[in-house]
Structure formats: structure tokens, C-alpha cells
Amino acid sequence: MATDRKPPRLGQVGPYMVCRECQEPLNLYSLVQSDDEWQEEKVIYLHPLETLSEDREVISLSGVERDHEPVPVEGNPLDAETPCDFCHYPNPKYVFVPRKQIRITDPLSGVIHDYSSPWACCDGCLSAVRNKRLGKMLDRAMNSRHGAAARLPREERIHIRRMVREIYLQYIDSLPMGPYELRIKNQKPQGKPGSRKGM
Question: Quick one: average pLDDT of 88-112?
């Protein structure tokens, strides 16, 4: 059946949004008009490891259904529950910054995923990522107890590994800069309340 609507894609850059219920960063998708890809019809926020089907239904890539829908609120990257982008470990310590755009089209849904933002990395993945050891990066992603792939059936694991491999190849081709240490500097008070330097 022919349709003139384009598949959903990741939306334009906007505020940093997290889920109010679980504090996970949310991915932004825009449903666009067929004759003007910049004219957004609707904006949808999804949790990590969720995507949209061709019928625009939410699909869990982990096979585990969440007990809540995303409740988008503006957040702070320093407070969000941001996992390692390679193995989903909950406390990444480093970040790599791609120098080129990374865009992948989901072969099942046609959704365009944009992975051009900085990639968080934990201690365990650092050596493989810094040295661009693709096999080791894939092994960590597929076998991590913090990710979803280790719990999937063998056939699905093979499919997911191929998809992740394509993403990692584009990541490596983006000539990422880093690692940069993720840390919060101690903030010194900037004057007294009511003064010109502080509030």
C-alpha cells in the first residue's frame, strides 16, 4: 500500500529532555510532512532502546516492556541517568565527540537515527573504544549485563550485532575526539544573595 508520508526521524535539536519517572535521557523523534521534511507534524520522545515501527507504534528493542510511558521534562545532562553508550554501564567517566555526522536508517522501520552527539564511555570500554577495536567493542555491547542484547534469543542477537556493527563503523569513521573526562567542577559561590555577582 503506497503512502506519501515519510518515516519518522530524529527531531531537530532542542532542550535536553529526560523522563520525569526514571530520569533517563529521552530520544526526540519528529513525524514530518511528506512535502516538507522540516515541517514537523508531531514530536515524540522515547526511552533509550525504544524505536518506532512503520505504523508508528513504540517497539522495545530490549524485549522488556517498561512500566511507564516517557514523561518528558527538561533536564540537566549532569543529573540524568546517562549510561555508557557502548555497554550501558550506569556510570560512564569519559566522552568521545564525533567530528562527522553519524546517521543510520533502521532497516525495519525506516526511522533515521542520529548518533552525532557525544558518546559516553565507561572505564571498562575505554581501552577498546580508544583503540578502535571493533570486535572488542561489539563483544562488550552484546555481552553486557547492563544492556539488552545478552537476554535476546540467538537469532535476534545476530541481527542486533550487525546493526550495532554498522553504527560502530560509522562512529569510527567519524574520527571521534577524546577521551575527555566527565567531571563536575566544584562551584565557588559567586557573591552573596542579592549582590551583583550572585542570586
Answer: 80
